[in-house]
Design goal:
Elements lengths: L56 E3 L7 E7 L9 E8 L2 E8 L9 E6 L8 H7 L3 E5 L2 E4 L8 E7 L8 E2 L8 H18 L8 E6 L2 H21 L7 E7 L5 H13 L10 H9 L1 H14 L3 H21 L2 E2 L2 E5 L12 H8 L2 H7 L14 H9 L8 H9 L3 E7 L7 H10 L5 H5 L4 E5 L2 E9 L2 E6 L6 H4 L1 H12 L5
Parallel strand pairs: 5-8, 5-10, 10-11, 11-14, 14-17
Antiparallel strand pairs: 1-2, 2-3, 3-4, 4-8, 4-9, 6-7, 12-13, 15-16, 16-17
Helix pairs in contact: 2-3, 3-11, 4-6, 4-7, 4-12, 6-7
Pfam families: Peptidase_S10 (PF00450)
GO molecular function, one term: serine-type carboxypeptidase activity
InterPro entries: AB_hydrolase_fold, Peptidase_S10, Ser_caboxypep_ser_AS
């Protein structure tokens, strides 16, 4: 979910110092040993089945001395599988997560880590509204979700960065860049796999939605790069197989320009903005493309990049918002206001997670007494202040592909904010070893149970796919099609 406010993508003009640090591993929070650690100092927990239901078990690893994981059994949501909740503690920072075993074969099935976007939105949206094993879309608690992605996979849902959902910090610390967020997620992944040997070597996939288009390429790259450190320390590397991005904001510049197409051409629905306004927007396209490219990509200048994206975003956003349509589903009006993300059912998720009995069951830290918030304005503003969105994630995608990590880009055809036009454009423009093969593939229709489900293009481990009549949250609108999409992807079958 890309978090929208009155100023949405209108970014402040900042000093160049605000975004000066872009190197992922300039200073590791973890102290990797140059030599293999003494295995006698570490005893893995081994089995999730040994965890307590009434209190947290603490797990650590000597290679990650500043990290601790608290985890417990938390039977809820899906009575057919084991479920767990806990915190990733990075000294004074604490990230909350949910984990559900596969309904099929938890001892052999792949592992998926899922994050929602924002930046600043909780993955409870993915869990309780989209792809999780249960949904909380009415006032009666949770209901079993038959098309959950844990049908054939073990899956994490993580509230990150700190300040999102049930995640918190002790002394007001904050994370404001995807690079910093990536380090914490990569360390957690290694600690988990090292402690629970049943998952060692298991195929691992990192997935996310919306701002996940920026998160996931960096998170997957951090896990991949960290593997060299793990091998050096005598540990088992993470078997990173793929990255999956749904309706992602991976190239914000192409996405901003695509807003013209979505409202002034029949890209998904008939044009919805008057001709005179569209003419004005069209006249700025070349100027905005050049300005953003020169100031945000070729040589990042925070002041000029902030000015370019502020101007261009306002030109294309304002006419759309004036229509009153849902920015996450161009075919629908915005219901309930943007505070409900235009989906009033999200209120039920918050009400469920505000119940004292539910918080106790999940092990939510008692210090969190405020009502649950789906999205954090503070986190969103912190990422906005560093212009994080405008450090494009496309080069990370190409690097992953060139290292044999498969990448899936799927997009609901009715989404506006992270639409299929912008996503297709950056996938075609992506420079990597398989670019010519990918461009050479025409879009073709893919089907589910003999019925058209969308269009797709694929080559050498890179797949782009649309899902007909789905908005920003594909699994919510099209649960059957989204599950089929993921099952084929995990099985390495073509759509």
């Amino acid at each position: 979910m890309i978090l929208l406010k009155a100023t949405a993508l209108a970014l402040p003009i900042l000093s160049a110092l605000a975004a000066s640090s872009k190197t992922l591993f300039t200073q590791q929070a973890t102290d990797y040993s140059a030599q293999q650690y003494d295995e006698g100092l570490f005893t893995p927990f081994e089995s999730l089945s040994l965890l307590s239901e009434t209190e947290f078990t603490n797990i650590q690893h000597p290679v990650f001395p500043h990290y601790n994981v608290r985890i417990k059994k938390s039977h809820f949501c899906d009575p057919t599988v084991n479920s767990y909740t806990g915190y990733i503690d990075i000294e004074a920072r604490h990230l909350f997560f949910y984990f559900f075993e596969s309904r099929s074969n938890p001892d052999k099935d792949d592992v998926i880590l899922w994050t929602n976007g924002g930046p600043g939105c909780s993955s409870s949206i993915g869990l309780f509204m989209e792809l999780g094993p249960c949904r909380a879309l009415n006032g009666n608690g949770t209901t079993f979700h038959p098309e959950s992605w844990n049908s054939n996979a073990n899956i994490f849902f993580i509230d990150q960065p700190i300040g999102v959902g049930f995640s918190y910090a002790d002394y007001g610390e904050a994370v404001s860049t995807s690079e910093d967020a990536a380090k914490d997620v990569a360390a957690f992944v290694s600690i988990f796999f090292e402690n629970f040997g049943q998952f060692k070597g298991r195929a691992f996939h990192m997935a996310g939605e919306s701002y996940g288009g920026r998160y996931i390429p960096l998170f997957a790259s951090a896990v991949y790069d960290q593997n060299a450190k793990l091998i050096e320390a005598g540990l088992t590397p993470i078997n990173l197989k793929s990255a999956m991005i749904g309706n992602g904001m991976t190239d914000s510049h192409k996405m901003i320009l695509s807003y013209y197409d979505m409202q002034c051409s029949p890209a998904s629905v008939a044009p919805i903005v008057d001709i005179s306004t569209c003419v004005v927007m069209k006249a700025t396209l070349q100027r905005c493309e050049k300005w953003m490219r020169e100031s945000c990509k070729e040589q990042f200048d925070a002041i000029s990049c902030g000015a370019a994206t502020t101007f261009c975003s306002s030109v294309y956003n304002a006419p759309y918002h004036a229509t009153g349509r849902n920015p996450y589903d161009i075919s629908q009006p915005c219901e309930g206001g943007i505070e409900t993300l235009c989906y009033p059912v999200t209120k039920h998720i918050g009400n469920y997670l505000d119940k004292p009995s539910v918080r106790k069951l999940l092990g939510v830290d008692p210090s969190l007494t405020a009502n649950f918030s789906q999205c954090s304005p503070d986190v969103h503003n912190a990422f906005t202040a560093t212009l994080d969105m405008h450090h494009l994630a496309t080069d990370y995608v190409s690097a992953l592909l060139d290292r044999g990590v498969r990448v899936l880009i799927y997009v609901g055809a009715y989404d506006w904010i992270c639409n299929w036009v912008g996503n297709e454009r950056w996938t075609l423009a992506l420079e990597w070893s398989g670019q010519s093969a990918f461009i050479g593939q025409p879009l073709r229709e893919w089907t589910v149970e003999g019925k058209p489900a969308g269009k797709t293009r694929s080559a050498k481990g890179f797949t782009f796919a649309t899902i007909y009549e789905a908005g920003h949250m594909v699994p919510y609108n099209k649960p059957k099609e989204s599950l089929e999409l993921v099952q084929r992807w995990l099985a390495e079958k073509e759509l």
